[in-house]
Structure formats: C-alpha cells, structure tokens
Amino acid sequence: MTETYRRRLSFSERLYLASLRRDGQGIVVQYLLEGEGRLEKNVLEDAIRTASRANPGSRLILKGHLGRSYWEAKGAVPPVRTIQWDRNAPLPIECQRYLDPRQGPTVEILWTDEPNTRIVFRALHSVMDGGGLFLFIEDIFRALRKEPLKGAASELNDSEFLEKVVGERYRKPLAFDFPPLFAEMPSGGPDVHEARYQRTLAQKPQAVAAKIAVGITNALGQGRTLRFMIPTDVRNYKRDVRSTGNLSYPLFLDVRPGETVEEVQKMMFKSLVGKDMLFMDPAEKKGLWIPMIILRRLVDLLYFYQRYFRKGFCSVFISHASLPGGEVLSCPGFRHRSLGYLPARFKMAALAISSINVGFNHDLVVFGNQNFLSEAQLAQVVSLVSKTLDEIPA
Q1: What is the mean pLDDT of the chain?
Q2: Which of 157, 156, 152, 121 is nearest to 51 (CA)?
C-alpha cells in the first residue's frame, strides 16, 4: 500500500457516480441501526475518528478524470449529523443530502438525540458496497468497546480483485428482455424510492434468497420464468484481502415456475463454486474513458427504456447479508436491536428486496420506484414474502 491510500476508479463505480444528482438522488448505501440505550454523539464521533484511520476507504474523495480517475483518502473523517426524525415516518428527504465525490464527505453518519439512539450510516455506493460498510461499522463498535480494530486497507478495486481471483474474463452483454413482476404499472409519480414497507422477524430464516425467488415466481410469476439479480459479496474468495470497496458481483438466477427451494439452492451453490459471477463488464476498459455527462444520459435512457418497453435485465433484485450476532453492534450503554436497509432515492425499475440477519434478528425491506410499482403491489409482495419465509421449508 502507498503512503496515502489510493484506489483506481472502476467502470462499475463510474456507473454508480452517473446516478448522482445534486438534489440527493443517487445510488447510496444506507443502513439504519436501532438499539436500546443512548449513545452520546461525542463518544460516537471519537469512535468514528479512530475507525476511519484503520479504514481509509471511509475518507475518500475523487481525483483525476476519465480513465485516470482514482479515489484518495484525503477527505475528512465521516461527520456525524444530528437529525430530527419521526419514528413513524420514512427518513426525510432533506436528511438524504448529496454526498459530493470531489469535495466529500463520501460517507456520513446521522444521529438522533433520543433516549434510544438511532443511527443511519450512509455511503456512496461508488466508494463502498454493503459488505464494505459493514466492515467499517464493525470497527466503529470495536472502538466503542475499546477492542483492537481489524481495519480494511486494501487498495484493490473490483476489477483488480477479479483479475487476482480468476484472471481477466468478461461476461456477455446483459439482455434487457425480462418483464417486470407486475404487468400493470402506475402512471406518473416521483422518480424516487418512496413506496416501501418493512417488517422485522424475530426468528432467523434459512435459505432466504432461494425461498423468496421460489415464492415470488410461483405466486406472482403468472407462469413466466423470472430473473433474480442477487449481489454477492466475493471477499470470501480471497480472505487475505480486507477491503471496504465494491467487492460485490451480481449473481443472476433464472427461476422457472414449479422449481423448488432445493433446486434453486443447488443452482446458487453451483454458481458460487464455479465463481460464475466473477466476470468483468464488457465495457470495463473502454467505459473508463466515456465522459460522465454521456454516462448520465445513458443511465437516464436506460431507465426510460425499461419503463416504456416494460423490460429490464432482471425482474427482482434480492440483497441478503448476515452478521454473526448483535454483540458486534453493541457497546457499553447501547444494545443492538435491529439493523435494516433504508432505500435511497434513485431510479431503478425492478422490485427490490433487502434482507439482513444479525444473530437471530431478521430485517426485511421491500421497496420499489413509484413509477413501476404501486403501494398496493408492494404491500402484496411484503405479505407474500413474509408468508414464504415463515412457511416454505428450506
């Protein structure tokens, strides 16, 4: 590692940057941590300052241009902002501010001044994926407990990581020929993830992604084959690399009506063993030289195409993460109760489901763009998924 942490900007990260808008819209990873007890703001700030030294990916700002762009750890320590937030309402739009990749911060923490503290961790997806943000959060709580930090300081970006694991190989261009889950689409509505539902389950379910895929295909697929996109953390393929970067690759599952959870589990296992998700985007090299203004236009055109033709590269997006137990997110005076995903405001055509296990606590969030899904349709999916996880055996 160089004296100052640097990481080359990859093509996938450029695409994430192309989604950003000055009003706060964009692909941002957001997690809500709730617990019992009060965590003082100044104590939290001290722990974040300590953790950020061991995790330089939390302090990145963008340097350079086009194919010579790179992240450098010269930004400030992630700030802690105090917010006012009604517990019975979604996270206010005004709290989801623009994270400037050039000026920073690219990671921030929101804190509520309440007897039982709520904390929101926000990071540009171009800087961190969910797995990377989890590593940083875990070190924050190690600092709060006065334990040694593990740190994550690898400078490999996603394409460089892939080359070290499987060599240079490219996937075929994605086919945008999969229909949305629901044939009827609402008209109008804001281009944000406003309609969403959340349910917390007390018991940790098994085979989450496979159960959801089978349940949705059989109950709502109307006899069609549905494609599920499952972002997969690939850090386990090279465990000597600790990185907060974007080390998640999409695993695509085509699920046919009548397939069982066991069959889908076998498909997933075969893909994981074969490293089927470890392919570079066909535009990985040349795409680095596409001006950002053109990439932004391409992202908007893609969104328009999916809405107008009602087809996309997947029908449903499923994200699932698991942490070993609530103690990793607890410290003196504060005890973890739940950790859930907060949908950011960005254009996305597919229905999306986020599932997070922390010990035996399970947080499930179903969300979608109001231009593609009505609140009634989302409520239908929430009911189905909840029932599926409770009833379908693994």
Answers
A1: 87
A2: 152
